[in-house]
Amino acid sequence: MDIKRTVLWVVFSMSLLILWDNWMRHNGKQSFLFPSPATQQSKNASASASASATAAAAANTAGPAAAASSAGAGADSATKHEVFTVTTDVFKADIDSLGGELKRLELLQYKETVHREHWYDAFLELAGKKEVPVATNNIVLFTETAQRTYLAQTGLLGGTFPNHKTNFVAKPGPRSLDGGNQVQLVLESELNGVKLIKTYTFKKGDYVIDVKHDVTNNTAAAITPSLYLQLIHDGTKPQGGGMLSGSTEFYAPAVYTEDAHFQKLDFEKIEKGSDSHATKSDNGWVSVIQHFFVSAFIPQDKTAREIFTKKVDTNLYAVGNILSMGSIAPGATTSLNARLYSGPQESDKLEKIAPGLDLVKDYWYFAIIAKPMFALMELIHKLLGNWGWTIIVFTLTIKLALFPLSAAGYRSMAKMKVVTPKMTAVRERYKNDPQKMNQAMMELYKTEKINPLGGCFPVLIQMPIFLSLYWVLQASVEMRGAPWMGWITDLTAPDPWFILPVIYAISMFITTKLNPAPADPMQAKMMMFMPLMFSVMFFFFPSGLVLYWVVNNILSIAQQWVINNKLIPPEHKVAAK
Fold first, then answer.
1. How far lies 61's CA from each of 52, 54, 118, 304, 377, in Å?
2. Chain centroid to CA 323: how far?
3. How far is CA 248 from the centre of its chain?
4. Are the C-beta atoms of residues 556 and 458 closer than 8 Å to each other?
5. Which of 314, 323, 309, 321 is nearest to 265 (CA)?
6. CA dist list (Å): 415 to 403, 452, 526
7. pLDDT per residue over 57-100, tens digit each?
8. 118 has pLDDT over 60
9. What's the rounded Cα separation, in Å, for the pair 493 and 500?
10. pLDDT tens for residues 538-571?
11. Strands laid side by side in the 293-299 sheet
12. Is the distance from CB of 295 to CB of 287 less than 8 angstroms?
């Protein structure tokens, strides 16, 4: 068996698999690398969760939606409501007086990205026949339009109390920072003698919004309300983005508790009532995640809560918490605090906000490599301030770290070149008996002290790094829209002029020429075509990934020259000639 050829085919097949999977997602079809998220509990746990959720819903007037309908019926539905806009240096938030819900949230420091939908768009643009528009609109998370519904709602359960369908009145006050460090919006609503005060606190440079709820009992009897915090999202799948460009969009609810850990859910399963997740805790958070961004309600810690998911309307779903506020005596007030994070999936910020929140940043199965890899890249970036140069220095660092292993591999390749005539003779002698041919080859390797896998090490050791870097580029909002220099304006998007793929093909061709020629003619032809095949695939890969591979190849050429001239014994060079 020719192990090196097998390894090369595996590398090539893996690249084709990634390319095909992204083409499927690009055309709105189900990914076979990313099936609908599997839940992490058994059917028995699912049954228990369902029973618990049903009991909780019954105890709380059938949940937030039903309570809203009940309370809404008692309110004046004809009352006009207004929208209050709060602006900070990172947010522009619209909060509706009806329910005090956060109905629109614009991120002022993040622009929408525009990627070419087809590879030939770059050729058309280069020829002056097409102009790709520059993104000017800010990213909008919470919104309510014909295409997308995404809202943050809170309210009371346990009676006809104020909720997200009750009209609120805003207290006077500033609606922007105005040179300060924070701005508050205070909303009040009273229904049947129960007053709810919602206080939204926005802070300078912070994507965390503090949401405080004060409940005052102005009735003659004690009340036992519960507070719900929920994120509402539609189940419509987003349009596919550019292939392998880092623009593939998605939306998914997710919950986290210390016991059950991170659980990514699925709108389709919520629709069918087959989703399974933790249902009770005194810690954790609920969220809706999407590519590069996340919104998460984080109740105050050590507060008992129910965790629910449910369908609230046609193609509309909720994920949230229900927190008991205990018994509130007549004339008394009880408060509950929560935080709402809505912003980018920046690792250093998420880790500090809440335990496990950084898990929304999805590195797929490569997290064990990708996380430390990104941590190292962040350190380099702090020194250089440019993600393109960071990738180059990172590649150099990895290359130096792996130099001893690569050197051993190249020495093995040099030995293979020495014994190539003997290998050819063995193949010729046993060409009609593959079993004896393999036995003779193994004896030859043993006699000549050759590791048949040695020449594959330079390729094998690069694959986990290559795939992990792919997911780092896919998941890291820090690199979203990050330029390198000149024509590379977004390292998570493909090279618009295909310069890096062409350089890669040239460097790969040189590397192939420096290696010993394979004895197998078919393998030799494949090695000649590999640079072309990979360079075509790299037309669709993020330019940051292609930059890594180009630099890696250039360093490999220099490394191979050093090994050939400094480390390979002279007798092997003479024998090879």
1. 14, 11, 51, 19, 51
2. 30
3. 10
4. yes
5. 309
6. 18, 10, 22
7. 333 434 675 555 444 444 444 457 899 999 999 999 999 999 99
8. no
9. 12
10. 887 889 989 998 998 898 888 777 776 765 555 5
11. 169-170, 182-191, 194-203, 208-217, 333-344, 293-299, 285-290, 251-257, 261-264
12. yes
pLDDT per position as a tens digit, 314-330: 999 999 999 999 999 99
Predicted local confidence at residue 510, as pLDDT: 84
**Helices and strands counted in the chain (H then E):** 17, 19
Within 10 Å of residue 173's Cβ, how many Cβ atoms? 11
Backbone angles phi, psi at 97, to 5 degrees: -65, -25
Which residue is listed with tokens 């490599």? 369
> Is the pTM for the entire model greater than 0.90?
no
Total residue count of the chain as it appears in this document: 577
User: Residues 6 or more apart from 400 whose CB is under 8 A from it?
Assistant: none
Residue among 370, 368, 395, 402 nearest 380 (CA):
395
Q: Around Cβ 150, how many Cβ atoms within 10 Å? A: 23
Q: pLDDT tens digits for 412-443?
A: 666 666 777 888 888 888 888 888 888 888 88
